[in-house]
């Protein structure tokens, strides 16, 4: 998700509560993978990019999480001509979410009753909003897909048009390859923005200005 607004959620120029930021980052990424797995197991519709991931997985025979990692790495390579700079959070995003998704898919049941599937979907969307607030709020770098969108937008393109174009494209390709496109995809698209609008400010690591007369924290390596 590309984040815009008054607050700046880019990597911090100074070291602020590094342990807390790492905890937020990795808990957020693991929960993000779990939220993806919940939506996949609901069979009511995946997140836009996950329609694409699932479609490729069904064609190649590779695990869902493996495809998430491969696609994330390929997207990260596209940052090079856009002159985007990845952070620790960016690289971790590529690896951790895929591993967490495969781990969750290995233990989650596949519900058959509609009410249980709806519960999985609802839990997945809500958990995704919390996970996004945690890992983006850690300010250690955007995810590779978010960076692609913001990088293209920085070249003078509308962020709305860029995001819509990319997500519509991956959804259509993924659906044609066998990915699950359903009511859950639409609900996620409509609900995730307002939900993250609530979770992100609550979970963001805030900058604490140095006390008067003290030296500022050292710059990040």
Could you provide a short overview of the structure?
By secondary structure, the protein is mainly alpha-helical.
Instruction: Give the overall shape, derived from the CA principal axes.
Output: globular
H and E order: HHHHHHHHH
Query: Would you report the number of β strands?
Result: 0
- Count of DSSP H/I helices: 9
Compute the gyration radius: what is it? 18 Å
Tally of individual domains = 1
Report on the biggest sheet.
Answer: none
The percent of residues in helical segments reads: 55-70%
* Overall residue-averaged pLDDT value: 87
| Beta-strand residue fraction | under 5%
Task: Please explain how this structure is put together.
- By secondary structure, the protein is mainly α.
- It has one domain (18-203).
- It has 9 helices and no strands.
- Residues 1-8 and 213-221 have low confidence and may be disordered.
List strands and helices in order, with pairings:
Layout (H helix, E strand, L loop, with lengths): L17 H25 L5 H13 L3 H14 L1 H4 L5 H20 L6 H24 L6 H11 L4 H19 L5 H21 L18
């Amino acid at each position: 998700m590309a984040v815009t607004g008054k607050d700046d959620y880019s990597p911090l120029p100074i070291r602020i509560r590094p342990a807390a930021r790492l905890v937020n980052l990795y808990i957020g990424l693991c929960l993000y993978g779990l939220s993806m797995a919940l939506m996949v197991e609901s069979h009511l519709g995946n997140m836009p990019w996950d329609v694409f991931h699932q479609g490729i997985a069904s064609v190649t025979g590779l695990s869902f999480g493996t495809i998430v990692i491969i696609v994330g790495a390929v997207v990260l390579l596209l940052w090079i001509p856009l002159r985007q700079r990845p952070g620790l959070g960016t690289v971790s995003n590529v690896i951790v979410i895929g591993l967490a998704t495969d781990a969750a898919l290995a233990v989650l049941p596949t519900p058959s009753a509609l009410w249980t599937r709806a519960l999985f979907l609802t839990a997945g969307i809500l958990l995704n909003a919390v996970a996004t607030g945690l890992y983006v709020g850690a300010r250690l770098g955007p995810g590779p897909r978010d960076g692609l969108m913001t990088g293209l937008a920085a070249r003078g393109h509308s962020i709305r048009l860029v995001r819509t174009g990319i997500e519509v494209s991956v959804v259509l390709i993924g659906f044609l390859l066998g990915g699950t496109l359903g009511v859950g995809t639409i609900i996620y698209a409509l609900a995730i923005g307002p939900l993250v609008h609530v979770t992100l400010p609550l979970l963001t690591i805030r900058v604490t200005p140095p006390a008067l007369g003290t030296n500022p924290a050292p710059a990040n390596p």
